[in-house]
């Protein structure tokens, strides 16, 4: 009975995830599809030939650019989020409440206001229309999530394991690599996944700070959606969803993970 229930639950989950993409898949393989027809009148591979052909080189370039920006943002977000979350989760200090409020501001304030406010400073600093500038503006939205995730992880972290390792002669580097990181790896994976997905889907901030020179896939996708070429827009949408979906599958086993030191 239990395996059957699990299979039903798994099938229902897969169906609920894939169902919204059914129309996109059909659109991407259609040549003509007009209302009120339930199925396309003509089928074809024109959209996919455009995406992966010579004409779609800009799509591939945008895909690579999006992956690089999202990976860089996720990496920096985790590198900063782990020590910041450790400090907030393990220690009490006067500015703790102030820091938590400051971390919430980029999440509460509309993204347009944040991007427009930073744009002028980035122009003065020479960061506008650069890869680094886009990564930095993405960090304003991704870093708070990374810090809050790691804050929760370290709130339940037991530092006694580190003290035991130190008493056995382990230096700081070994304590970090062999004690802290293995015990907090599920939380780190979740923080990295959140940062990657948030950066991957950013459109407005990339358009404002990137200035059209840093062309990611969301920017190209919005342009194609406005062009009226639905088959090509549907094919690009599937390309846009695929890396995020693969990242979610890769990290799925960590989402429910619980470290050994999760209980004090």
User: What Rg, in angstroms, do the CA atoms define?
Assistant: 22 Å
Order of helices and strands: HHEEHHHHHHHHHH
**Strand percent estimate:** under 5%
In whole angstroms, the N-to-C terminal distance is 36 Å
- Rounded mean pLDDT score: 83
Query: Which CATH first-tier class of the largest domain would you pick?
Result: Mainly Alpha
State the total count of DSSP E strands: 2
Q: Which consecutive residue ranges, at least 5 long each, have pLDDT under 50?
A: 257-264
What's the CATH topology label of the largest domain?
Answer: MetI-like fold
CATH architecture of the largest domain: Orthogonal Bundle
Strand order of the largest sheet: 1-2
**Total DSSP helices:** 12
Number of domains: 2
Helix content: over 70%
Shape: globular
Oligomer: single chain
Which superfamily, in CATH terms, is the homologous superfamily of the largest domain?
MetI-like
Return the structural class.
Answer: mainly alpha
The description of the largest β-sheet is: 2 strands, antiparallel
Please provide a written account of the structure:
- The protein is mainly α and 264 residues long.
- It folds into two domains: 1-44; 57-262, MetI-like fold, CATH 1.10.3720.10.
- Helix content is 75%, strand content 2%.
- It is built from twelve helices and two strands, in the order ααββαααααααααα.
- It has helices spanning 2-18, 22-28, 46-52, 57-90, 96-108, 111-125, 131-155, 160-167, 172-200, 204-210, 217-227, 230-255, and strands spanning 30-32, 42-43.
- A two-stranded antiparallel ribbon has the order 1-2.
- Helix 4 (57-90) runs parallel beside helix 7, helix 6 (111-125) runs parallel beside helix 10 (204-210) and helix 7 (131-155) packs across helix 9 (172-200).
- The longest helix is centred in the first third of the chain and has 34 residues, at 57-90.
